[in-house]
Design brief:
This protein is an alpha/beta fold and about 300 residues long. Helices cover about 30% and strands about 25% of the residues. The chain has 9 helices and 14 strands.
């Protein structure tokens, strides 16, 4: 399938809110200003009717606003305002035919994981798990921004090291090549058994999460194991699991112990320490392109083989 066109400075982007609204309107304005300061032509795509609780708008309104962007040919990218919650509610209302025809570059992470995986499963559309408008762009550091432009500009043949050149840590030796898919663990697990989770046979899955204590991470990975997902993977890469401390007054496994336990169920390489997730400094990860994961000799490397844009 054809890839989206590259996003370059002075390109045209629309800012969508398919999940939650900005926690503070000032955050949204600061993010829009940061994008415009890079030379991008930026337009906000408001959701009719305004916010509804933790949603940026009613389900139909959010789906309509997103679909209107997917049907356009004059945009270089659709950048999501923030994550939060809401995309699971509208996956069955998205115009996948328009996505397949117009090939927009969709940027976001967290709740946007559901959108990325659904677009790849239903339209063959790759995406970019990268910085969003309200939480990230106002304070994005130079190294994280450089990682973003590298991915959206169409680079290939590079190692996914952290913004400070942080390297992966080995968890299980092996070597695999496959399609790089994933994002947020909770959203990936939520799609099991639905038509919006891509076939993960031979894939290299990358996962992160926030606000989930070890027992919850354990349960989410157990769901992937019991559904047969882990056993079908080519490889697995763990990102950051932030705000994951267990209650101080209860016994618990550590996050590292949980991750090591589930690595055993993957018939291929497993690495940890990807600087990606709900952290201020992070690498941008392409979704739906070929990658190579090599773990051995006390080292690990995840290499992106194909560009996400062309």
């Amino acid at each position: 399938m054809p890839r989206p066109a590259p996003l370059l400075p002075f390109g045209r982007v629309a800012v969508a809110a398919p999940s939650s609204a900005a926690l503070d309107p000032a955050d949204a304005e600061a993010g829009l200003a940061a994008l415009r300061a890079r030379g991008l032509a930026v337009e906000a795509a408001p959701v009719a009717g305004g916010a509804v609780g933790y949603l940026a708008g009613a389900d139909d309104a959010r789906a309509d606003a997103l679909n209107a962007l997917l049907r356009r040919d004059d945009l270089d990218a659709v950048v999501c305002l923030r994550g939060g919650y809401g995309l699971l509610r509208i996956l069955d209302r998205i115009d996948y035919d328009a996505a397949r025809a117009h090939r927009p570059l969709v940027v976001g992470y967290s709740d946007v994981t559901a959108l990325h995986l659904a677009l790849y499963a239903r339209a063959g559309l790759p995406g970019v798990s990268g910085p969003m408008v309200a939480p990230d762009w106002p304070g994005l550091d130079a190294q994280s921004e450089a990682a973003f432009w590298r991915v959206v500009g169409g680079a290939a043949g590079y190692d996914l090291a952290g913004p400070g050149d942080e390297r992966l840590a080995p968890l299980q030796d092996g070597e695999a090549e496959g399609v790089l898919l994933g994002g947020n663990l909770a959203l990936t697990a939520a799609l099991v058994g639905t038509p919006y989770l891509p076939a993960l046979d031979g894939a290299i899955l990358f996962l992160e999460d926030v606000g989930e204590p070890p027992y919850r991470i354990d349960g989410l990975l157990a769901r992937l194991r019991l559904a047969g997902v882990l056993g079908r993977l080519g490889g697995l890469v763990f990102g950051q699991f932030t705000d994951a401390a267990p209650p101080a007054d209860r016994p618990s496994l550590s996050v590292d112990e949980v991750l090591a336990h589930y690595a055993r169920f993957v018939d291929g390489p497993v690495a940890t320490g990807l600087v990606y997730g709900h952290v201020p400094r992070k690498v941008t990860v392409p979704v739906g392109v070929r990658a190579h994961l090599a773990v051995g000799g006390g080292a690990a490397a995840l290499t992106v083989l194909d560009p996400v844009t062309a």
